C-alpha cells in the first residue's frame, strides 16, 4: 500500500490554499486556516489528532469545533480528532470558532485528508451453513481499525456482491475480494484485499410435526408407535431421546403405557444429528406428542344461587357453582357451555376456574324475567389450554332456578278465640285463598287494651286456613285487643309481602294470686295430712292444682274446692305419702271454675315432715392392727347420729378415745327427732404380728467379715420379714447393706406383707469379736511415719480389736522408757510421748522402739518386737 506524506502534490495544494484563503489570514482570533494529510490512518497515533495545532497564526484557545461534513470522530470541545473513526478515505473540513468578540473573523478551518484503507483481513474464515448469513466485513481484524466502508466486494468471478451473504445452502471454499478507491495525495491506485470463506454444511435434523391424542380413548393402536413417522427431511443415523425411548437408535414407544404411568401432558421427543465438524453444532428437532385426559363429570352437581322472589327480578344477580363428581377435576381454567330454558333462555360459553373441585361462573339475569322454574344445563366443559383431543363426559349436569311468587292475604279472615288474662290466645286464619299450602312467618301488631308491635308467629297453611298463638305475655290486661297482621313471609322461598287483615280478641281477668297461702303441719308416717289453702278472696268455686316434692313425689294433682270466707281445706291422699322425711307441697295453679280462667302460682308452698323410725345401721366386721392403737372414733359407721356401746343393753355410750380390743361392739342411730334405732352388733378384731426371735448367739459376729443388717436378719426366725431401726421409737429404717458396729444397738420389728407391723420388737446389742481363726494376712507393722501426710501416720495393728478384743499394747524407747499404752479404746500411737513429758517436747524422735503385745486370749503368751519411727 503506497503512502506519500510530503510530495509535490501536497506542495501544490498548500500553495493553492494560501492563494485562495490569503485575504482571511490577518486579524483572526481563530487563527489561520490549515490542513493535514493522514495517509497511514491505521497508525494508532491517529486516534488522537489535535486539529488546533494545525491552525496558523495565533488562534485564541478555548473555542469550539464543528464537523462540517458529518465525518464523526471529532470532540467538539477539545478539537481532538479520532481519524480511525472516519469510515471512508477523502478530504473533510472542520471549523474552529474562537471565544470572545471584536475580531475581524472568529472562525478558521482545517482540511483533513484521510488516505484509503482496505483493512487487515483474516485470510480464512470458516462458518456453519446453519448461521444462514455471513457479513464479509466480519473477516477483518477490527480490534485495530475497521476497513473503510466505501469499497466494493466481488466474488471469484468478478461479480459485485453485497457484504451480507446468504450461506444457508453453501458448502465448500469461496474466494472474495474487497477494493477501496484511492485518495489523491495518499494513493495512486485502488487498494484491494482478499479473503477465503469456508462454509461447512450443518447437520439436518429434519422437520417434525406434533401429534395430538386422547390418552383415555385413542391409544390402543399406539402401543408400538414409531416417532420417526413424525419427522421428514432428516439426515440418517441420528439419536432419539424422550419418554419411553429405550435406545437412541430405536424411536418406537408405547404411548398407552406412558399415559398410564405418567398421565396427561406434553411429551417431547428429540431427534439429534451429530456434527463431524467443530464449527457446526449438533442439530436437534423436537416433536411434541400431547396426550390429553378425558374428564369425567359423572356425578358432578351444579347449583345456582339464588332462587328469588318476583319483586327481585329487576335487581337479582346469579352465580352457578359446579362441584366435581367421583373423579377429581384438575385446577385449571375451563370453557363452560350451558343452556338456560324459558322464554328468554339461550346458550352461552364462559371461562372460569376449577379450584379445589369447584367452579363458579355468573349467569346472565336476562334469562330470568318472570315467575317460574328455569332449567340450567351444562352441555360442555373443556380446559382452556386443552387442544381438544378428548370429548369429556357430561351426564345430566343440570339444576333448576325458581322465581317464586309473593304470598298474598287479600280476602283472608282473622278470628281470635276469647282467652284469659296472661294466657295464650288461639287465632284462626281462614279464607286465605291466594296462599299456597306451606309454612309461613307472619308479623302482627296488638292494639287496644294491650299493645305490642312487631310480633312474629309461624303458621302452616292448608287449603287457605291456619292458626297461630298470641302468647299470654302479650295479654296482660283484660279487655279487648285488636290483632292486625302486617307482613307474611314464605319460609320455604323467603318471599315476603305486606298485609292489613285484623280481628278482635276478648281477654277475661285472672284470679288474684297475690294473697294465696298454703299451710301443712308435721305428721308421723301413715297419719292423715290436712292442707289449708287461704287468701282466696271472693272466689267461691275453685280448682287447686298442687305437686309433692322431696321425700314424696307426685305428678300434678288437682282438687275442686268450695271456698268459705276465702279459705278451703283438703286431705292429701295417703297413697301420695308413702315415704318418711321432708315433703314439700307446692300449689301451682288456681282456677276460677266459673270463668275457667286460671293463674299459675309462684312460691305458694310449705314444707312438712313425716318422721320415720330409724332402721338398724348396716355394719360389717372390722379389724385393726394393734400397733395403730385404734379407738372407738375409728369405728364405722361414723357421725354424730351414731353412738357406740360395749353391750346391746348399755345405756352409756363409749368415749371416742376408748382403745379398742378384740370383741363385740354395738351401734345405734338416733334421728333428729329423737328416734333411736335397734342396736347393730359389730365384731372387732385386733391383729398383731409376732415379735422376731434372735437365734442363739445371733448377736455375735466377726468384724473381719464386715457383717451387715442383712446378716443380722439372717440370725432371726423370720429373716424375710424382719426390719431394723436404730431406735425403738421414731428411729431410722436401716437398709440390709448397713454395716454393723461393735456394741451397736438395733431394734427388730416383724413386718409381713399385707399384715400388721408388730407392736413389739427385739433389742440386739451386736458384738464383732466372735473371731475364732487368725487370718493369714494378720500382721504387726514394723514402722510408721507420723509426718502428717495422711499416709501411715499412726502405729495401728489392723483388725486386732476383733481377734483379741482385750489386748493391751506397750511401747518403749531404747532406754526402756514407756512411750505409749493402748487397747481397743486407744488403738493408735501417733508418735507422741504419752508416758513421760519433757522428752523431745512430748514428740518421740526418729529411731527404733520396742513393743510388748498382750493378747489376753486363750492363754496366748505376749509378743515382743520392734518398730521404726521415721518422720
From TrEMBL:
Domain Ig-like: 614-687
The organism of origin for this protein: Flavobacterium johnsoniae (Cytophaga johnsonae)
InterPro entries: Ig_7, T9SS_type_B
Official protein name in the record: Gliding motility-associated C-terminal domain-containing protein
Superkingdom of origin organism: Bacteria
